[in-house]
Amino acid sequence: MRSDLTGKVAFVTGAAGGIGRGIVSRLAANGASIVVADVNEEGAREVAATLPDALALKVDIRDPDSIDRAVTLTVETYGRLDILVNNAGVNTQAHRVHVDLFPIEEWHRIVGIDLDGLFFMTRRALEPMQAAGRGGRIVNIASVVGLAAMRLQSPFVAAKAGVIHLTRSMALELGPQGILSNAIAPGSIMTEGTKALFYGADGLFQAKTQAFMEHIPLGRPGTPEEIGEAVLFLSAPESSYINGQVLAVDGGWTTGYMM
Fold first, then answer.
1. Between 91 and 184, whose confidence is greater?
2. Which whole-number Å values give the CA distances from 63 to 46, 72, 82, 86, in the listed order?
3. How many CA atoms lie within 13 A of 217 on its CB side?
4. Residue 182 placed within a domain
5. Can you give the residue range of the structural domain that contains 131?
């Protein structure tokens, strides 16, 4: 789709990763200035160099001080913050085990980034949105496993389910201020992480990939660009009456069980 985001500033976390790159490319192509935020500073700079108007910032969303510095610099640079895309997140590859065996420290790492970090980031980014009084958009990247649970990744499932309900709570609280909050629930997306699990020749679960694809009506993984298109849709002025919704971009995964 095409939309006019000229003059808007979008702050995207996890922007150096595969899905992050898909998001920033679509927002930038439609006129937005982009804050490319990532814990990987080199990656953030690499992505920012490909965009027409971008600021690369190292941000650890687990650290409120890191977030504060980044938002302050954003406002100093651009004078505003209109769109927040909470994309940063992690899962586990090494610990695909039952909940009773899941390492406590790994639980805290995943929930600390995927849920707590999203809360810290949102809380600080709201300050310039509210101060300006122009409204704003928040797009939280959740997951289909926040809608339909999967085995062997209990903290990721719990965190993403939390993100979905947090999004709804935010929509109720922030909607009267003109700040719209929505979530996207990606299905299996072709990134370096999913290649290591499913789609690479040496993927950890490569033997199960065919059966997995048979459960998805479209029979393929999605692309980062398809997630970027959904973020653009929810960020666009034309989507001004959509609030508190969860858009599953999953090839039909969550519609039911494929026999």
1. 184
2. 23, 14, 22, 15
3. 9
4. yes
5. 9-187+224-248
Measured CA to CA, the distance from residue 47 to residue 17 in angstroms comes to 9
User: What local confidence, expressed as pLDDT, does residue 94 receive?
Assistant: 72
Under a CB-based contact definition with an 8 Å cutoff, are residues 180 and 237 in contact?
no
Q: Would 257 be classed as within a structural domain? A: no
Averaged pLDDT, 188-195:
75
Six token digits for residue 128:
């310039």
* Verdict on whether the full-model pTM lies above 0.85: yes
Q: Say yes or no: 102 and 196 in one domain.
A: no
Q: Give yes or no: residues 197 and 119 share one domain.
A: no
Q: Are 165 and 43 within one domain?
A: yes
Q: Is 200 found in the same domain as 92? A: no
CB atoms within 10 A of CB 213: 17
- Is the separation of the CB atoms in 229 and 236 below 8 Å? no
- Residues 129-173 have pLDDT tens digits of 999 999 999 999 999 999 999 888 999 999 999 999 999 999 999
Q: Please tell me whether residues 101 and 202 are part of one structural domain.
A: no
- Say how far apart CA 247 and CA 78 lie, in whole Å: 30
Between 110 and 208, the higher pLDDT residue: 110
d(CA 257, CA 255) in angstroms, rounded, equals 7
C-alpha–C-alpha distance, residues 72 and 35, integer Å: 12
- Per-residue tokens: 37: 């935020």
Q: Is residue 70 part of a domain?
A: yes
Contact 8, 33 (CB under 8 A): yes
- Structural domain total, the chain: 2
Q: Select from 46, 49, 72, 45 the least CA-distant residue to 58.
A: 45
Backbone angles phi, psi at 182, to 5 degrees: -140, 165
Whether residues 22 and 122 share a domain: the answer is: yes
